[in-house]
Design a protein that fits this description.
The protein contains no helices and 10 strands. The protein has about 110 residues and is mostly beta strands. A 4-stranded antiparallel beta sheet has the order 1-2-3-4, with no helix packed on it. Strands 5-6-7-8 form a 4-stranded antiparallel beta sheet, with no helix packed on it.
Length: about 110
C-alpha cells in the first residue's frame, strides 16, 4: 500500500507510467506525483487556469480535465499544462466524470 499525501481535496486520478496525476478540487491544481515514492514532481494549473478540477482522462500526451464549477472540459499538455482545447457549451453544467474512447469524449 502506497499513501501519497496531497495538498488539497483529491478527486479524479490517472496513472501514466511512473506518474500519478491528481485533481485537487479546492486548490484548483493538478498535482503530479511519483507513483513509487509519492514525491511531488510539480503542480499544474492553479486558480485562473482550472476552476475546481474533478475529473481526469488521458490520451497520449494530453489530459482531459473536467472543471466542476468552471462548467467546461479543458484539454492540456501533460508536460506543461498548456491548454490545447476547451470544450464549453450550455450542456456542461458542473461536469464531473469523464471517459474517452477512440472517437468520443463522454462527460
Amino acid at each position: 500500500e502506497q499513501r501519497i499525501p496531497v495538498n488539497g481535496q483529491p478527486y479524479g486520478m490517472v496513472i501514466d507510467g511512473e506518474m500519478l496525476y491528481v485533481c485537487l478540487y479546492n486548490t484548483h491544481y493538478i498535482g503530479v506525483y511519483r507513483k513509487d515514492t509519492g514525491a511531488q514532481e510539480r503542480m499544474m494549473g492553479g486558480p485562473g487556469v482550472f476552476t475546481n478540477p474533478v475529473g481526469l482522462a488521458q490520451d497520449g500526451e494530453m489530459l482531459y480535465v473536467t472543471e466542476h464549477l468552471g462548467h467546461r472540459v479543458q484539454v492540456v499538455r501533460k508536460e506543461n499544462a498548456t491548454t490545447v482545447r476547451r470544450l464549453e457549451d450550455n450542456t456542461l453544467r458542473s461536469p464531473f466524470g469523464i471517459l474517452l474512447d477512440e472517437q468520443h469524449v463522454y462527460v
